[in-house]
Write a sequence for this structure.
């Protein structure tokens, strides 16, 4: 393979590609170190070109082959819990030909790698994954995950010595990290301990207990970080839900996901405007109804719109004038009634004076009551002489008003005799109906 071409691919690692060793590790074939060794041996090829250097970047769509077999595209990261029984080796291939944990796995399980290792006689929880990069991430002590074990030891347990392990013991020149050991119970010469540590060096618990004069005869791992062994039966495999995996190992997936592109200035302004509107509406809602009361008080009073047509305007104006003139008319009538004057309703000025001997107009109706006083003359059934000329107000000829003694007709009250309410002076009295008006 051309080295210049390899250098160009190495420079394009930021374009969404990944190094070939990482691709092989993610596929679960080997570790990165083993991938580099395979490349040096000429076992790895990309797009039918055999690689001679691990400085190669592959992109989606490139065909990667190991020993002539195509390496599939990496699948989404998955995680399984496995209850390892005692007597199995945690390795893909054993030089001595012993049985491994991968020989006991179900056939429908994809190619997986183990996260950490357990000794031949150690049993308990073993995590498996199809992502070699995830396995490497969880194995590092920098992850800070605690491994918890149940340990059965033979010998006399000194709790003071167990408490001293929290400082980090040094055994045979090897410095170990802090170890938390608690005595649970004692059964004869045996005792059960709970041991928690964060490193997990090779045979660490067995070597530390031997330094305390205790012999480990059973070792069970019950937890690895947030994942517990629980009631998983020996030899059983159970996949961890993907949601739980992403929640518990969020730093790993966050580092792999590309950064989101920055928002444009227009989107930022729109977002700020929407936030300000929400804040103002929230303040208005908190203030409640009293904040809206001043607006209602400041509203202009409604005014009636004038009629549009001329007829409507004339009717409205006439009604308004009638309302204004009605009280004045009533007061005029009352004053004239008190003074005994003539009612203002009659307008004889508009009519011409009657000729002598002409009968006056007939009354509109009968008087509403008895006259107030006696008339000065006597009523006569015989027709009298024709009346002489009269004035406009209905007075008879000189010699008296209200009719002659012979009962001749005179004035407007000829049909009903003398006008009721006539006084001795010759002035007629108005009926009660007229006074009411």
């Amino acid at each position: 393979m051309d080295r210049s071409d390899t250098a160009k691919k190495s420079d394009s690692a930021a374009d969404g590609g990944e190094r070939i060793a990482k691709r092989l590790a993610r596929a679960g074939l080997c570790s990165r170190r083993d991938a580099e060794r395979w490349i040096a041996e000429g076992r790895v090829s990309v797009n039918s070109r055999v690689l001679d250097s691990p400085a190669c970047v592959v992109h989606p769509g490139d065909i990667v082959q190991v020993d002539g077999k195509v390496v599939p595209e990496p699948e989404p990261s998955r995680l399984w819990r496995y209850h390892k029984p005692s007597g199995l080796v945690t390795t893909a291939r054993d030089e001595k030909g012993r049985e491994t944990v991968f020989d006991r796995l179900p056939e429908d399980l994809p190619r997986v790698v183990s996260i950490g290792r357990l000794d031949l006689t150690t049993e308990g929880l073993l995590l498996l994954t199809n992502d070699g990069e995830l396995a490497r991430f969880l194995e590092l002590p920098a992850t800070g995950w605690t491994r918890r074990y149940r340990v059965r030891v033979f010998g006399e347990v000194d709790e003071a010595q167990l408490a001293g392990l929290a400082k980090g013991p040094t055994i045979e020149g090897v410095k170990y990290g802090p170890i938390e050991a608690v005595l649970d119970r004692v059964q004869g010469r045996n005792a059960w301990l709970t041991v928690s540590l964060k490193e997990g060096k090779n045979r660490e618990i067995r070597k530390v207990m031997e330094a305390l004069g205790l012999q480990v005869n059973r070792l069970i791992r019950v937890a690895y970080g947030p994942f517990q062994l629980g009631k998983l039966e020996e030899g059983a495999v159970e996949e961890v839900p993907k949601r739980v995996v992403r929640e518990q190992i969020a730093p790993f997936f966050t580092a792999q996901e590309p950064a989101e592109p920055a928002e444009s200035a227009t989107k930022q302004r729109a977002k700020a405007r929407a936030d300000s509107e929400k804040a103002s509406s929230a303040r208005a809602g908190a203030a409640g109804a009293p904040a809206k009361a001043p607006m209602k008080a400041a509203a202009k009073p409604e005014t009636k719109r004038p009629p549009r047509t001329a007829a409507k305007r004339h009717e409205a104006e006439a009604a308004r004038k009638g309302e204004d003139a009605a009280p004045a008319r009533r007061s005029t009538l009352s004053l004239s009634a008190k003074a005994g004057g003539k009612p203002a309703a009659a307008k004889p000025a508009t009519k011409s004076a009657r000729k002598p001997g002409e009968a006056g107009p007939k009354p509109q109706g009968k008087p509403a009551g008895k006259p107030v006083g006696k008339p000065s003359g006597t009523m006569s059934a015989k027709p009298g002489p024709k009346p002489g000329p009269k004035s406009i107000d209905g007075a008879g000829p000189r010699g008296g008003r209200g009719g002659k003694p012979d009962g001749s007709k005179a004035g407007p009250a000829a049909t009903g005799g003398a006008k009721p309410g006539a006084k001795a002076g010759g002035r007629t009295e108005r009926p009660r109906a007229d006074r009411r008006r």
